[in-house]
Every structure is written in C-alpha cells, then in structure tokens.
Amino acid sequence: MVILSSLKINMNNHTDVEKSLNSRTLRVAVIGIGRIGLPTALSFAKSGLSTVGVDINEKLIQKINSGNFPLMDEPGYEEIFHDVIKTGKFSATTNIEEAVPNSDLILLSLPTPMDENNIPDYSALRTVASKLSDILSPNSLVIVESTIEPGFIEDEMISIITKSGRLSATENFFIGVCPENANPGEILHDFTNLPRLVGGISPDITKTIKSIYNFVFSVELIEMPNCKTANAVKLTTNVFRDINIAFVSELSLMFEKLGIDTNKVLDAAKKKYNFQVHYPGAGVGGPCLPINSYQLLNTAKRIGSPLTIIESGRKINERMPQHVIELTTEAFEESGTPLVGSEILILGISYKPDVKDIQLTPAEQIIKKLKDLGTNVHIYDPYFSSTEKFGIKILESISPELLEKMNAVIIVTAHKEFKNLNISNFCKMRTPILIDTRGIIDPTDAHNSKLIFRGLGRG
Ligand SMILES: NC(=O)c1ccc[n+]([C@@H]2O[C@H](COP(=O)([O-])OP(=O)(O)OC[C@H]3O[C@@H](n4cnc5c(N)ncnc54)[C@H](O)[C@@H]3O)[C@@H](O)[C@H]2O)c1
Known about the structure:
CATH architecture of the largest domain: 3-Layer(aba) Sandwich
Structural class: alpha/beta
CATH class of the largest domain: Alpha Beta
Distance between the termini: 66 Å
Number of domains: 2
Radius of gyration: 25 Å
Low-confidence stretches: 1-5
Strand content: 5-15%
Largest sheet: 8 strands, mixed
Helix content: 40-55%
Bound molecules: nicotinamide-adenine-dinucleotide
Shape: elongated
Number of helices: 18
C-alpha cells in the first residue's frame, strides 16, 4: 500500500527546501546502501535530516538494524552509524513502497556494473525507476549518484519514471545528478573535502541540489549545465586515469627490456610541472575505472563516435596479469625449479592498497592462470584473513615456517602491511623467488639479498 504523506515539501520551491533544511524537516531516502550509499545516508542523517536507507539485501538490512556496522574499513563512519541510530535519524528497510512516498528527496546509489561481455548493466536503476513511476509522491526530487553514461537521465530515466502518467518532469517531478567520486577506504575524508559535480533537469533544480549538498557536506559544488555534462565529467576524470595507467604500464614493458627502472623514470618525470604521475602494475580493477571506460565505449558505440585510445588502454590494462605470469615463469626458469607443482604465495588480492574490495581485481586473473599452470596457490591478505576467495582459504598470517615451504611470493597489492616486510624473510624460502608487481621492493636490496627477483617495469 502506498502511504502518501501530508507533510510533502515542493522540491522545486527553493525557499521551501532551504526552510526544510534549516528546520531539519526534509525527509530523505537513499536507495542502495552499499559501499557508497550507506556512508551517504549516514552523512545526511548526521546533518540532522531523517534518513531511511533502502536496500534489497535483507541480510544487510538485518545487520544494520541489529546495530552492526557493515563497512569496518571506512574510518570515521562507525561512530556516526551508532550516533544516528541512537538519535533515530537513521533507519534501514527493504520496504521501498513505504520509504519513498514518505520522503521528499530520493537519492539513488544503485550499482552500475557490467556483464561478462563488458556491457554496462543499468538494470538496478531501471528497476527502481520503474518502481518510482508508481510510488514517488508528486513534487519529489530524485538525485542519481550512481555512475552513468552521459544522456542516461535525459534519454532513459525520465521516461521510465514518468511512464505511469502520474508524473511529469519539471512540473511535478524533479531530477538531477551528483555523481559520487569518493575513494573506498577514504569516503568520510573525500565526502567532506572533494568538490562535487551537480547537474539538474533545470537551473533551479541544480541550485536546489547545491543547497542540499552544501548543507550536508559543505564542499565546493561545481554547477554543470545539465545532467549529461556532469556525468561526462565524472567519466572523463576516471577514464583519464585508466588510460594513463595503461600508458605507463605499456612503457614499463619496454623499459623492462631496455634495463630501465620505470619507477626512476616516473619519479624524475613528475618533477616536471605538467606531468601527472601514474604507476604501472598488475592490472586495473575496482568498481570504477574498468567499468567507466566501458561505459564511455558503450556511448561511443551507440552514437558511432570511436574512442580508440580508451579501447587500446583497456587492452593493455587487461593484459598486465599475463605479464605477471611471464615474469613468474622467467624467474622459475632462472631458478631451475619446475613451475608445475610449486607452492606460490600471493600477497594481497584487493584491487588497490588498504581496502577490503576485490571487485574486478587483477589478482583473480593471476590466481586463475597460476592454477591453470599446475601450481598450488596460497593467499595472504590482511583484509580477507580466514575467509575463502577464488576457491582458496586465505591464510591468517604469514610465518617464517610458511615461507620456508614456498617456492615464490608474488606481491599483487601494495597493502601498507607489505611495505614494511623485511626482505630477509624471503631469503629463507624453498626457492627464493620474489615477484613485485607494485614497485614496493627496492631491486638493489632484492639482488643484494640473493633473491631471484622480478619487479614489474623495474628493468
Ligand atoms: N565503490 C566505489 O568506489 C564508487 C566510487 C564512486 C562511485 N561509485 C558508483 O556508486 C554506485 C554504487 O556503487 P557501490 O560501490 O556503492 O555499490 P554496492 O554494490 O556496494 O552497493 C549497491 C547497493 O545497492 C543495492 N541494490 C541493488 N539493486 C537494488 C534495488 N533494486 N533496490 C534497492 N537496492 C538495490 C545492493 O544490494 C547494494 O547494497 C555505482 O554506480 C558506482 O559506480 C562507486
């Protein structure tokens, strides 16, 4: 049953919105309370606005409602979580039918992944948009924080939300975007420091969204002419990084052959005022960069305007796990130890340092390839200890006894725990092969310690 509230604020009336912020009467629903949505909802609740988090994941809702904070690797939010639950400003539910009609502002932080053919998947947004068409109360404002292709709001979302005929865009339903750009593991810092892009269906709505985000986050808000431009900026900044990592990764393959240490090149190059440094590595994973490149490639295909650099960059980044295998094979050849039947320890499976996240991690490809080559793979990652990932039970710790049984160690993620590892620990391995794919081991130290060492891009 749809429960329509009588306290409805007209989100197109800037003065009313300002008043509702100051009196803390604006009611907020955040749909999708995962990695980004939950911290977002908690920030809105912390600012004093009644906020309900909606998600289809029943276990997550149960966990939250039992007072267990699910994002322990997000510093600062656990305390906020307990505070806003205590003050009653935040609650979580699976009941979208109740939450949405009783809210003035609906934020969408839904996943926008891609399928096995690298085609962007907007099904969560489409499903929720379709639901909103039936249950959104008139004069509400919907803000899409999810990462979407430029034009998705204008070409799809609006027509889905208005299909029931109850709502008409810019008349009694309003929409805008404020693409999320926080880094997992640093969300509180980023939310309260990084500028945000704002694009609305009309200049008035853009102004209203700016007021709301200024009230909650007090950061610089960059006004965009429309939704599609805001989403274009979001994708441009991330794809810039994907391409630049591909650039230095490809260079590093050549520098290896030339006996040039890519890290030395980059450390000197970055002294030039207009060089923005990126580092090569085992591959690019995570919930953003690879998908964002494919989102722009999808747009390119749709409108027939090729983006060849992005396409090449993706190919290079996706080949890097294979290069890690080549370095490993070479090191085993040098040692005279057969690769088949060897014991290999992977250090780190997260897609980037110091976070508990393995989405699209290059570690998965590396582990699969090593298994296919007949090796026995072991994993240590402090963020996943004692869990099972990729069919392997993650070790609880790494002891000298364990290392003595290993033929090789491959550093895949530069977690801070690995940066302090004493290199002499590796000398006691059954075969002292050390592969560093993240540039954290000094090659001279490794050679002086008589390790059979390969550093990705280290020459
Ligand atoms: N994680 C990041 O680093 C990051 C950074 C910037 C932007 N983003 C973008 O933010 C968006 C959300 O990403 P995330 O990492 O928080 O994803 P996530 O998978 O951690 O969270 C999404 C949540 O939405 C829920 N959900 C899925 N379908 C739903 C539905 N129909 N109704 C209600 N809930 C539903 C899921 O159960 C999940 O809890 C994506 O577009 C992503 O690209 C993510």
